[in-house]
Amino acid sequence: MIGVITDSTCDLAPNTLAQHGISTVPLEVRIGQDRFADWQDLEPGELYARLEAGATVETAPPEVARFEEAYRRHLAVYDHLISVHLSGQISQTVAHAREAARRIGESARIHIVDSGVVTAPLAELVIRASEAVSAGSPPEDILGLLDRIRAAQSSEFVVPTLEYLRRGGRLSRAGELLGNLLGMRPIITFADGHIVPARRVRQGQGLGSIIESLEAKFGREPLRVAIAYAGQDPDGIGRVRLALENSKLRVKKGRVQLIGAAVGAHVGPGTYGITATPLEV
User: Fold this and answer.
1) Backbone angles phi, psi at 134, to 5 degrees
2) Could you tell me how far CA 175 lies from the centroid of its own chain?
3) Which end of the chain is more exposed for a tag (fewer CB within 10 A), N or C?
4) How far apart are CA 43 and CA 262, in angstroms?
5) How far apart are the first and last CA of the chain?
6) Average pLDDT of the chain to the nearest whole number
7) C-alpha 123, offset from chain centre
8) For 62, which DSSP code?
9) Class of domain 2-151
10) Which residues contact 272 (CB under 8 A, 6 or more apart)?
11) What whole-number distance in Å separates Cα of residue 174 and Cα of residue 267?
12) Domain 2-151 shares a fold with domain 154-278
């Protein structure tokens, strides 16, 4: 038997995790003196309300001991674990996972994957890992599948305001003012595990730019597509859905997920993105 573990920055809702038999180890979200387990003690909506009220929010990876406990508990049930986590260039989470596997002497049974991404593309990886487990695939085949998905998928996000990137130390105050003055917004993506700017577009043009980029990359290839959105905004999510429906993309499977507190703390409410993966990888 094979179990699938990830961390809370996959941003899958509890019912979706249960549906796929996926377990998570939560990151910590710190607001002042308060400490919260991401997605367990703090819902995304509460985090965004606090951000908009001016709160300073920090995040921290799970402690090594928390991974040790999770691994011991799951290895009492499963022969192997596929443990897929957010990029090691963004967080020490995957490093803590590896250290926990080493400490309990189970590195051969715990297969740890640095996804190189976070939020929706990470979710796609763990969902596909779970589907492969259900199909009876052995660990080495699942790891190969994840490598192929990582190479094939594309994710881009629009950050509607630069304020939260600046608050988190990822942008200077001068950079924020310049970006706002020019009316430009970054479209961000992932490269070698880092969050990097793909390009800058004028405010209001981000969604169209992402769609054009995906159309150029995938053409008429059948896709699995995920929309990730920071905040409960039915109108905003509806606009992204409508743009996909009106595009040339062949979306065969789609889902919508919220961006959780640990990720949302660094990008702020209103951030959204699209992750596309070929249906057949």
Assistant:
1) -60, -30
2) 25
3) N
4) 10
5) 24
6) 92
7) 6
8) P
9) alpha beta
10) 157, 158, 207, 227, 228, 229, 230, 236, 237, 240
11) 18
12) no
Phi, psi for 72 (deg, rounded to 5): -60, -45
**Sheet of 57-60: strands edge to edge?**
34-37, 28-31, 57-60
Angle among Cα 135, 140, 144 to the nearest 5 degrees reads: 85
Identity of the amino acid at 192: D
- Taking the domains of the chain in order of start, what are their residue ranges? 2-151, 154-278
Q: Do the strands 222-229 and 272-278 form a parallel or antiparallel pair, or are they unpaired?
A: antiparallel
Domain 154-278: assigned CATH number = 3.30.1180.10
pLDDT in tens, 213-260: 999 999 999 999 999 999 989 999 999 999 999 999 999 999 999 999
- CA quadruple 190, 194, 195, 199: dihedral positive or negative? negative
List the structure tokens of 212.
């054009």
Residue 176: pLDDT band (50, 70, 90) is: very low
Q: Taking the CA atoms of the chain, what radius of gyration do you get in angstroms?
A: 18
Place of tokens 């994840």: 146
Give the residue-averaged pLDDT of 120-147: 98
β-sheet with 80-85: strand ranges across: 22-25, 2-7, 80-85, 110-114
Where residue 265 falls (left for φ over 0; alpha for ψ -120 to 50; beta otherwise) is alpha
How many other C-beta atoms lie within 10 A of the C-beta of residue 142?
A: 24
Amino acid at 252: K
pLDDT at 171 over 80: no
Distance from chain centroid for Cα 214: 18
Predicted structure pTM score: 0.93
